[in-house]
Structure formats: C-alpha cells, structure tokens
Amino acid sequence: MNQTAINKPLFLLKTLLITYLLTGILLFALSFVLYKLRLSNKQIQTGVYLIYILSCFLGGFLAGKKLKNRRFLWGMFMGGLYFVVLFLVSTLSGRPMESGISYLLLVLSICLAGGTSGGMLS
Asked: Region 53-82: what's the mean pLDDT?
C-alpha cells in the first residue's frame, strides 16, 4: 500500500484537531473581549463567523500545503469536515446550531469558502 495513502487520513485528522484548537483559542479571546467591551449579539455573531473563516482557512492552507495536488479541493474538504464535526457536536450535545436551514447553509458556506481559500493560497 502506498505510504502517502496511509498517512493522508491521519494528517487530515491532525489538521482538523489544529483547526479546532485554534477555534477554542479564538473563542476564548472573543469571550474575554465580550466580557471587557460588552459586545452586542450582532458583534458576537460576526466574531464567531470570523473564527469559522480563520479556522477553516488554516485547515485548508495546511491541507493544500501538505497534499500539493488539487489544493482547493482539499481545502474545501477540510472546511466541509470542520462543518460536519461542528454540526454533530452541537447536535449530540443537545444544543443544536441555531434552527433554520438558512443558518446551516450560511455556516456551511462560510466553512467551505474559508477552507477553499486557504487551499488556494497554500
């Protein structure tokens, strides 16, 4: 079996872990800013969207850098994987993402766009 094929799933899981580590750090920073500045709900939501974009961008960038071929597709895959895990964790925790298909499609689009752009710029 090809050594690259064996390492690819492990690499993608590591990259996904890194993106969620970044998400955690950025959400902690956002909560600190929220505490200090008393942000509005709209500002908080915008911050969360930016965190999704940055995290997915990083995942797409790392995937594109390592896998080299079809970088934008690997970036899109990482963004999609990020969304799937985000959706599953929020659903399994009993606190599903905001209701509504339009919200889910928006978050999916944000994740895919962030990952794809990271892959393209890698």
From this structure: 93
DSSP structure string for the chain: --HHHHHHHHHHHHHHHHHHHHHHHHHHHHHHHHHHH---HHHHHHHHHHHHHHHHHHHHHHHHHHH-SSHHHHHHHHHHHHHHHHHHHHHHTT--SSSSHHHHHHHHHHHHHHHHHHHHH-
Once rounded to an integer, what is the mean pLDDT over residues 26-53? 91
Q: Identify the domain containing residue 44 by its residue range.
A: 3-121
**C-alpha distance from residue 65 to each of 36, 100, 114 (Å):** 37, 35, 15
Residue 5 has pLDDT above 70, yes or no: no
Instruction: Using a cut of 0.85, tell me whether the model's pTM lies above it.
Output: yes
- How many domains does the structure of the chain reveal? 1
Residue 95 φ/ψ region, left for φ over 0, alpha for ψ in the -120 to 50 degree band, beta for the rest: beta
Using only C-alpha atoms, the chain has a radius of gyration, in whole angstroms, of: 15
pLDDT beyond 70 at 96:
no
Nearest to 72 by CA among 121, 112, 120: 120
